[in-house]
Amino acid sequence: MEKKWWKESVVYQIYPRSFCDSNGDGIGDLKGITGKLDYLHELGINVIWLSPVYKSPNDDNGYDISDYQDIMDEFGTLEDFDILLKSAHDRGIKIVMDLVVNHTSDEHKWFVESRSSKDNDKRDFYIWREGRDGQAPNNWGSSFSGSAWEYDEKTDMYYLHCFSKKQPDLNWDNPRVRDEVFRMMTWWCDRGIDGFRMDVISMISKVEGLPDGQVDANTGYGGLENTTNGPHVHEYLKEMNKRVLSKYDIMTVGECAGVTIEEAEKYASLDGSELNMVFQFEHVGLDYDEHGKWTARRYDLRELKKNLSKWQTELEGKAWNSLFLDNHDQPRIVSRLGDDSPLSAKAIATMLHFMKGTPYIYQGEELGMTNCKFGCLENLRDIEEINAYHELVDSGKMTREAMIAGIEAKGRDNARTPMQWDASENAGFTTGTPWIMVNPNYKEINAEAELKDADSVFNYYKKLVSLRRKSEWSDLIVYGTYRLLDDESSEIFAYERELDGRKLFVLCNLSDREIHYHNDAFSKANALLISNCGEAELSEEMKLSPWFAAVWEVLSFV
After folding, report:
1. What pLDDT does 522 receive?
2. Which of 53, 125, 133, 345 would you call most buried, defined as having the most Cβ atoms within 10 angstroms of its Cβ?
3. Is position 199 annotated as part of the catalytic site?
């Protein structure tokens, strides 16, 4: 068992634009984050993952970067960042930056030069190709709808953009690109940051020759198989590790769309040659349908349990797991899997936080913040949602009503409504006009109220964080093995954690109905209850109330 600080940490993701606005312009900023560090210290987390704060024209809310070594005007200055970093470190909280290097903004100086002429020194910093019969070079589609190629009239060529047309993909096959990226990463590490979350890092190497992809019947474009987990991705990450990451005691996590168990073992191998861990997304696609994410379809708990257990068991002894259900790209889990109630938020948190891996809390998750009823296209801000709406509704593939329902169920804007600090106007997020609508339920769900309520979702999360980080069960929770206890076909989620002869049993009813449950492993144990929500009579045949969840340590067997 090799102990590492990042294995024993609990990470809190901040989406700066929506966290806290210090100057009344309606946009969250670095000073706003600094002002809320005591709140995060109270919660007990010890790592902040900071979504991008670099210079950006904000076509994709900061994931289109025009200068990697400066701060977006709306967020503040480098001096503000340094104050945030020091203030966090003074409280024992580390800062992990978002590294977005699959692509830049089209306003980045590299791309401005690259598109200026075919013989420019930085032309090969990006992926340019001649058209094919007057059309795009191949059939690849953008993740934000439409073709992944944009025609550039000045040089009569197309450039690749796997996301927005204002996010041209960097050409990682060019060693000069890698040199520049590694130099920039070193600059941030020397400034004192504590790691990187790497945006779509599995996409930095494309299939050689850029051939047509398998057509997706829904979009009409080639799929992801030619743009993810490419032929040189591990080579480039090993180079990154050797030249930058291995020189610092930092945490690294790669966002790896399309990753398999076998690929994850390479990205996050325990030999430390690439990254510490990856974000995989199989579990967040289980409630999709023929329209992809744009559906109100609910999770099947049995499918979710099977998938999460697969990643727990098959990475054991090979790679480290990341544990998440919410982030800036996902709808609120308390609405997606739960029923918006505090009890369901607690039950879902119990299920996740006792698994093996590093847990991530997304801002507001610890309050039980819910999805928002946006109602109409005009209230949306996310480029992915807006493009998909026009592509699917304008073509007649979906009705307006069905698409809005899908967006309200799965859209990214659900995660980006302002943090709900108190019951004052705009939820205490800003004194101005917020950049995106505030969820109307902020008067009932807010940090100020929950800090005062011992039975709140916040204080439940605080307990979970403390159990993992600062309790007699910490080693068992962090390093113990995982074993699913109940049959995969059951609607109950029960599993065991074990380390050096000590065991924890975790039992969750993640449904809105009472379930009768029988399992000798629970009924025959003299156990100490360490965390619970809901009600149940502990016996061989238990009646589990809706959203019941409990954790026991087995002290001895009868």
Report:
1. 65
2. 345
3. yes
